[in-house]
């Protein structure tokens, strides 16, 4: 079995960016790189940070980037800010909640259908018989929904026949699973690399 590739963090020397406009003095920008993997070249990452607030991630999971202004970081250094930031906050800055979660959407829809059926009175009126039939039809049709296109068609047809506003709030969009996998598996190790850099005073 191949031994895991060790994580390591590297800090470059101060990198001078010359700002010539308006005769402003050169601004020293410090940069860090954090490199590692989960083992045997799997789940690898290369993360680059600079002291002006830039974060760039190139990884096995995907590539993302973000820049924070000094006002957004506060009194922390950039590395301190990233170490303390929550995963959900960072994911919200790096990615969008545009991945359709079919399983959760269908689960919420089933719950809404069950509640809609419970609201029908007994004895049931002729109109409510139609509602009960619509709920049963929507439930059966939901079993065959296997992708976002079929979900949207179900909402417009079978779901739309059910007298329940909750049905329309059942569509769930989340961060792409690859984004979550990165923050669950790689980011904690990157944070430890950043903490070690901070402890060495290399900030």
Short description:
With 203 residues, the protein is an alpha+beta fold. It is 42% helix and 18% strand. It is built from 7 helices and 9 strands; from the N terminus they run βββββββαααβαααβα.
Helix-strand pattern? EEEEEEEHHHEHHHEH
- Major β-sheet annotation: 5 strands, antiparallel
- Class per helix and strand makeup: alpha+beta
As laid out across the biggest beta sheet, the strand order is 1-4-5-6-7
**Rg for CA atoms:** 26 Å
Strand proportion, as a percent range, falls in 15-25%
Separation, N- and C-terminal Cα atoms: 37 Å
Describe the structure.
It is built from 7 helices and 9 strands, in the order βββββββαααβαααβα. The protein has helices at residues 70-73, 78-84, 87-94, 102-118, 126-142, 148-156, 177-199, and strands at residues 8-11, 15-17, 27-29, 31-36, 45-50, 54-59, 63-67, 99-100, 173-174. Helix 2 packs across helix 7 and helix 4 (102-118) packs antiparallel against helix 5. Residues 1-5 and 13-21 have low confidence and may be disordered.
Please write out the topology.
Layout: E1 8-11, E2 15-17, E3 27-29, E4 31-36, E5 45-50, E6 54-59, E7 63-67, H1 70-73, H2 78-84, H3 87-94, E8 99-100, H4 102-118, H5 126-142, H6 148-156, E9 173-174, H7 177-199
Antiparallel strand pairs: 1-4, 2-3, 4-5, 5-6, 6-7, 8-9
């Amino acid at each position: 079995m191949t031994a895991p590739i060790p994580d390591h963090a590297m800090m470059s020397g101060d990198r001078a960016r010359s700002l010539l406009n308006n005769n402003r003095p050169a601004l020293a920008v410090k940069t860090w790189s954090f490199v590692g993997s989960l083992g045997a070249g799997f789940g690898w990452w290369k993360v680059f940070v600079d002291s002006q607030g830039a974060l760039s991630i190139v990884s096995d999971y995907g590539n993302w980037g973000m820049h924070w202004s000094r006002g957004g970081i506060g009194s922390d250094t950039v590395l301190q800010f990233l170490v303390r930031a929550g995963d959900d906050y960072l994911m919200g800055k790096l990615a969008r909640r545009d991945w359709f979660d079919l399983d959760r959407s269908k689960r919420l829809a089933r719950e809404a259908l069950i509640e809609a059926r419970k609201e029908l009175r007994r004895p049931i009126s002729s109109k409510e018989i139609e509602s009960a039939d619509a709920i049963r039809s929507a439930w059966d049709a939901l079993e065959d929904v296997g992708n976002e296109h079929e979900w949207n068609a179900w909402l417009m047809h079978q779901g739309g026949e059910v007298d329940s506003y909750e049905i329309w709030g059942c569509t769930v969009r989340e961060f792409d699973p690859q984004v979550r996998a990165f923050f669950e598996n790689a980011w904690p190790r990157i944070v430890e690399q950043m903490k070690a850099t901070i402890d060495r005073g290399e900030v």
